[in-house]
């Protein structure tokens, strides 16, 4: 008989590509994992993956069981979620704010899925350009803030969603596009296009320019990411964008991107939540959905 633990093992093997990493993910020794796989292959009377292949490759039988694992584990997850709803109730409020419009790219699909799973939760959201969302969170006016700029506020917890690289976008024919990476001084004679927020909330200033004592020649603002990209593409300035945002426009051939410094700058995107909200099942579910969607769909982001 195939058990849930077997299916979880197959998924872990597919996602990691190695027995060693799969064992670590499942909190098993490599010996215990190997024994479990031999047991499963004995039960189904066939081999499920090709030994000594790198990355690990599944046989046709293994691929068929992977399909079963995806279906069954998804159903188990749905059932667990439904039980939580029955135990803890479905009613609640989740008012959200975001500190950059780029997050709309992944937030809206996450919300659509979430609405179907938690229809009784009252949802609303707003941008963070016209007010300070983190103080509003602490005061109870909103319930969750998407931010890359955590502040020490009593009663507020920060849940990491994913890591990403802040990249400098330039026109394809810009002289800076010839460099492998950029230094702060490279922007001293450039117009920097940014979102209309204070400098202390922009990584390009706090982690790149200001520590080096560099000031751009001019600063121009726009609330719309697409407008920023169009200005850069037409040679009217440079801008800093998350790699997962810039990737779309690089793929279209509109702009080029370079790392800020030899090793790049890698901020973390967080979900800020009040402490008393963090344990609520419908909040936990939203955070899980957001993480899963981003890690699956956004280019260049890293799990934390």
Automatic annotation (TrEMBL):
Its main location: cytoplasm. This is HTH-type transcriptional regulator MetR. GO terms for cellular component: cytoplasm. Residues 2-59 form the HTH lysR-type domain. It is found in: Cytoplasm. Gene3D superfamilies: Periplasmic binding protein-like II (3.40.190.10), Winged helix-like DNA-binding domain superfamily/Winged helix DNA-binding domain (1.10.10.10). Keywords: Activator, Amino-acid biosynthesis, Cytoplasm, DNA-binding, Methionine biosynthesis, Repressor, Transcription, Transcription regulation. GO terms for biological process: methionine biosynthetic process. The keyword Repressor applies. Belongs to the LysR transcriptional regulatory family. InterPro entries: LysR_HTH_N, LysR_subst-bd, MetR_PBP2, WH-like_DNA-bd_sf, WH_DNA-bd_sf. The keyword DNA-binding applies. It comes from the Bacteria. One of its GO terms (molecular function) is transcription cis-regulatory region binding.
């Amino acid at each position: 008989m195939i058990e849930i633990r077997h299916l979880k093992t197959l998924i872990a093997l597919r996602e990691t590509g190695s027995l060693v990493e799969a064992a670590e993910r499942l909190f098993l020794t490599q010996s215990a994992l190997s024994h479990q796989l031999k047991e499963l292959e004995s039960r189904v009377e066939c081999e499920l993956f090709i030994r000594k292949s790198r990355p690990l490759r599944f046989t046709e039988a293994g691929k068929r069981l992977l399909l079963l694992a995806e279906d069954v584990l998804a159903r188990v997850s749905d059932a667990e979620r439904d039980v939580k709803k029955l135990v803890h109730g479905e009613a609640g409020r989740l008012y959200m704010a975001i500190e950059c419009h780029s997050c709309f790219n992944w937030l809206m699909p996450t919300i659509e899925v979430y609405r179907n799973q938690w229809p009784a939760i009252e949802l609303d959201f707003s941008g963070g350009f016209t007010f300070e969302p983190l103080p509003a969170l602490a005061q109870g006016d909103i319930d969750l803030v998407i931010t890359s700029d955590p502040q020490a506020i009593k009663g507020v917890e920060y849940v990491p969603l994913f890591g990403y690289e802040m990249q400098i976008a330039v026109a394809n024919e810009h002289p800076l596009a010839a460099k492998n990476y950029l230094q702060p001084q490279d922007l001293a004679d450039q117009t920097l296009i940014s979102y209309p927020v204070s400098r202390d909330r922009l990584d390009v200033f706090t982690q790149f320019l200001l520590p080096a004592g560099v000031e751009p020649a001019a600063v121009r603002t726009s609330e719309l990411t697409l407008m920023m990209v169009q200005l850069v593409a037409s040679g009217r300035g440079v801008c800093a964008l998350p790699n997962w945002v810039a990737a779309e426009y690089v793929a279209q051939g509109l702009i080029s991107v370079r790392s800020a410094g030899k090793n790049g700058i890698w901020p973390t995107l967080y979900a800020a939540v009040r402490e008393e909200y963090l344990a609520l099942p419908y909040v936990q579910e939203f955070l899980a959905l957001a993480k899963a969607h981003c890690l699956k769909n956004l280019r260049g982001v890293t799990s934390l």
